[in-house]
Amino acid sequence: MNILVINGPNLNMLGIREPDIYGRETYNSLVEKIEKYAKEKNVYVKCYQSNHEGDLVDNIQFAYGIFDGIVINPGAYTHTSVAILDALKAVNIPAVEVHISDVSSREDFRQISYVRLACFKTICGEGTDGYLHAIDALIEKVSG
Ligand code: DQA
């Protein structure tokens, strides 16, 4: 099983950015944690991060025919991007939305998620462990 983990804008700043909200773990250590977990679960994982909406759309499109599942934290594009929603719908690959923080208890503008409409599950407020739980959900959905 092949899983693509996509992180959107500012998630490369993990560890530096607002540590009270997002914690002190860096993006590189998040990638290591995901890769280690995927190996234990016997799945191939590729992690991708971009600050650019079109690059995120391109990578979702590239996943077509290659990846069996997508874990996506679109960062702020969660709340604005119809293009990312449409890309997820276009490839129709099972997808899980992840947020490190509990977006449901934050500002009003974070209550809207366009990508959620193309995801079978949303995980938020579990810190970076949310990515691992998203991998579990995809394994269950695709092979279970
Ligand atoms: C986030 C929540 C978003 O509202 C924010 O714009 C982010 C990170 C999270 O992981 O909690 O960049 O997706």
Structure description:
With 144 residues, this protein is an alpha/beta fold. It has one domain: 3-Layer(aba) Sandwich (Rossmann fold). The chain has helices at 19-22, 27-40, 53-62, 82-91, 129-143, and strands at residues 2-7, 44-49, 69-73, 95-99, 121-124. It has a 5-stranded parallel β-sheet with strand order 2-1-3-4-5, sandwiched between helices. Strand 3, helix 4 (82-91) and strand 4 form a beta-alpha-beta unit. The protein is globular and about 35 Å long. The chain starts with a strand and ends with a helix. Bound molecules: 1,3,4-trihydroxy-5-OXO-cyclohexanecarboxylic acid. 1,3,4-trihydroxy-5-OXO-cyclohexanecarboxylic acid is lined by residues 10, 73, 75-76, 78, 99-101, 103, 110. 1,3,4-trihydroxy-5-OXO-cyclohexanecarboxylic acid binds at residues 10, 73, 75-76, 78, 99-101, 103, 110.
Structurally, the number of domains stands at 1
- List low-confidence stretches: none
**Which radius of gyration do the C-alpha atoms yield?**
14 Å
- Count the E strands: 5
What is the compact description of this entry?
The chain is an alpha/beta fold. 37% of the residues lie in helices and 18% in strands.
Helices and strands in order, then pairings?
Elements: E1 2-7, H1 19-22, H2 27-40, E2 44-49, H3 53-62, E3 69-73, H4 82-91, E4 95-99, E5 121-124, H5 129-143
The protein binds 1,3,4-trihydroxy-5-OXO-cyclohexanecarboxylic acid (DQA).
Residues 10, 73, 75-76, 78, 99-101, 103, 110 line the site of 1,3,4-trihydroxy-5-OXO-cyclohexanecarboxylic acid.
